[in-house]
Amino acid sequence: MSKSKTIKETTDRGLCTGCGTCVSLCPHSAIKLTKDDSRGVYLPVIDDEVCNQCGICLDACPGHRVNFKELNESILGKEPEDILLGNYLNCYVGHAADCKIRYDSASGGLVTTLLSFALEKGVIDGALVTGMKKGNPLEPEPFIARTKEEILSAAKSKYCPVPVNIALKEILGSEGRYAVVGLPCHIQAVRKAERINVKLKERILLHFGLVCNHTPSFLATEYLLQKLGISKNQVSKINYRGKGWPGQMTITLRNGDTKLVPFFSEPYWGVAFQSFFYPIRCTMCTDKICELADISFMDAWLPELSQDRVGESLIVLRNQVGQELLQSALTAGAVELEEVSGDKVIQSQSLALVRRQYSARLSLLKKFRKGVPSYNQPLSKVKLTDYSGAASLYLRTHVSERRHLWFLINWYSILWGLARFSK
């Protein structure tokens, strides 16, 4: 029997990233994205009576294959010499000149400011960004922002699965020029989709990539609320970041009460979001730095900036399109930037270690005959500790997806607390 020409091949192998691209590109609207409540991720479902096996969804899918060599040569003109950073022109550390935007963002406010600047100057007509649903504040809502106010409403990170590319359908149906903000898997899919659909290539001018370690599943937020004794239906609004750097989660309840959760607290990125609730597919991605973006943005995790409480962003500028926007914003006084070395970016994100860890995970999955994506990239040499770390991660992932085992996360947190106290 021949392989399916649809993204069923991707989902059957457990390689779907939940990016939503297939939904937007399907010419027959045969695909819908559904939320898998047991795993806390999005998965596509195909209507077999409507689908004609055209293969477009599979061709655009980043889940099963991304030819980084070919895409880099096509988009950025050459194969990367630096396997950790990809192709780039310069690296910078900086922040928004507007203090309020800077303070209210995840880190530095550069994405929000540059999008607003591009919109105000007529460079773009809109930006694909993500907010949280008003009727369901625990689920994300990708949309096309066409005003500065709408861009501001989408500021800050969303630490849950986000099907950004379902909004590509609106770009396909609207004239104009657009910016897209997404994680590595979203940008990979956009770049692949642009090779299939000429309208997308013509209309998407800017690709802003958000550096990503992993996207916590919806179960992570469920666990955190459970730890705080808050039921889902009590929540009226949730902000995962903001209020300075590294910031905190702000949970607003329907009765008007507010709960603040510090970023590095135990139920948040201290333990739960950092060590548990990894979607399996996230563990296979080697593109943390988002190398196919025009500009990659990230938190500035550097020792010399550890005392900062307002926010700084590190960025990797990759091409002329991004350079022109940065220079214009800098000249207009909208942003403040200082050039840094690529080594600083590598240090801030522990990219060498991360690359080894991903290599170990892929190798381990292959040994157990699990599906892995084809990336056409060299893998790093790994150490024995990387394999043990990979095995530990998959054990923690197993625990995360089974609510009846969440008591083990509580025990892990106690040990984490004791170790922290002993220091």
Describe this structure in words.
- The chain starts with 7 loop residues before the first helix and ends with a helix.
- The chain is 38% helix and 18% strand.
- The chain has 18 helices and 13 strands.
- It has 423 residues and is an alpha+beta fold.
- The protein has an 8-stranded mixed β-sheet with strand order 5-4-6-7-11-12-3-13, sandwiched between helices.
Name the descriptors.
423 residues, alpha+beta, eight-stranded mixed sheet, three-stranded antiparallel sheet, 38% helix, 18% strand, globular
What's the N-to-C terminus distance? 59 Å
What general form does the structure show?
globular
Radius of gyration: 21 Å
Structural class: alpha+beta
Number of discrete helical segments: 18
The percent range for strand residues is: 15-25%
Outline the biggest β-sheet.
8 strands, mixed
Q: Which ranges are low-confidence, i.e. pLDDT below 50, for 5 or more consecutive residues?
A: none
Number of DSSP strand runs? 13
Which SSEs are present, and which pair or pack?
Blueprint: H1 8-12, H2 21-25, E1 31-36, E2 41-46, H3 56-60, H4 68-76, E3 90-96, H5 99-104, H6 110-120, E4 126-132, E5 140-145, H7 148-153, H8 168-172, E6 178-182, H9 184-196, H10 198-203, E7 204-210, H11 218-228, E8 235-239, E9 248-253, E10 258-262, H12 266-270, H13 272-275, E11 295-299, E12 313-317, H14 320-331, E13 335-340, H15 342-349, H16 351-367, H17 384-400, H18 407-422
